[in-house]
Amino acid sequence: MPRIVRFHELGGPEVLRIEQVDILPPGPGEIQIRVKALGLNRAEALMRAGQYLESPALPSSLGFEAAGEVASLGLGVDGFRLGDAVSVIPPLSQAQWPTYAEIINFPAYLVVKHPESLGWEAAAALWMPYLTAYGALVDIARAGPGDFIAITAASSSVGLAAIQIARQAGAHPIAITRTSAKVPALREQGATDVIACQEQDLAGSLNLITGGKQVRVVLDAVGGPNFTPLADAMAPGGILFSYGGLSGQPTPYPLAQVLAKNLTLRGYLVHEITGNPAKLDNAKRFILEGLRKGDLTPVIDKIFPFDEIADAHRHLESNQQFGKIVVRIAPL
Ligand SMILES: NC(=O)c1ccc[n+]([C@@H]2O[C@H](COP(=O)([O-])OP(=O)(O)OC[C@H]3O[C@@H](n4cnc5c(N)ncnc54)[C@H](OP(=O)(O)O)[C@@H]3O)[C@@H](O)[C@H]2O)c1
Predict the structure, then answer these.
(1) Architecture in CATH of 129-271
(2) Atom of ligand 1 nearest to the CA of 43
């Protein structure tokens, strides 16, 4: 029987258990995938702890990203063949369509044939980061040449994807990281400037970097007290995407800056893109083309074996990572 990761109670990484379960054949419109690698996301740690947007019914499985081989096809599925190398677009519900398993059934419209040359680990580290960054920066903000784009939690998988996409658009990605530890690596990844926000004055550094032009787009996964200095450094008409709450602290509303500069403060979820078939098609084309041209390259932090899923979650929550944490599944 295939193995799946489940949790029967909410809590820390130790609640994750690997269990053997029967997997049904794929239903109509579904594809069964023999998973080779999974990509980890903050949303899964939050789900396990009972702090995510979605409340799991226990026991629950979890996971948003995976890559593997097509093992069988449900009724009505065409365009795929057994053995195809595929990866999955993050579904709306990770409880309903979890990826932390050796075998998964997935709706065919969320399954993509990726270039085989990519490898399983990179293919499992692809869709959540690039779709999230693409949706905000390209689909909504229309980032382009000359734009200054401030990216918080820059060493997260989404942050690094945003740096690459901003570069591709001809914009200036300014990476914001907590300390100077990851500054050289962020420069190597293409950030035109890097700010260590626990060691430097954030608004002052942003103003210095932009030379008074100010920041047109902010992609913020952190919230908390840094919200105000970010708004301070924004250009009139700028847009601030609030897409995560890593700080865990109350986030002030920068009323004076919003009023004085006509700022747009906007919540954003990747499902705005994945839930819209036309937008999703454009996004897939953009990302696959970026991979082909070499403008986009997933950054993998560390690979864990499936048996060490709890350690992989501990590493995620250590915040030491640079890029995507991946779990490799050995052949059955
Ligand atoms: N809205 C959406 O649709 C969507 C989609 C995907 C992800 N997200 C959100 O995007 C964020 C990144 O997710 P991820 O899975 O790519 O990466 P992740 O593994 O959660 O990112 C970890 C990085 O975030 C930074 N960080 C962690 N705690 C922090 C804190 N308290 N204050 C400031 N920075 C902190 C650190 O970077 P430094 O060491 O560089 O400071 C750390 O290396 C999460 O908040 C996630 O929930 C949202």
Answers:
(1) 3-Layer(aba) Sandwich (3.40)
(2) 47
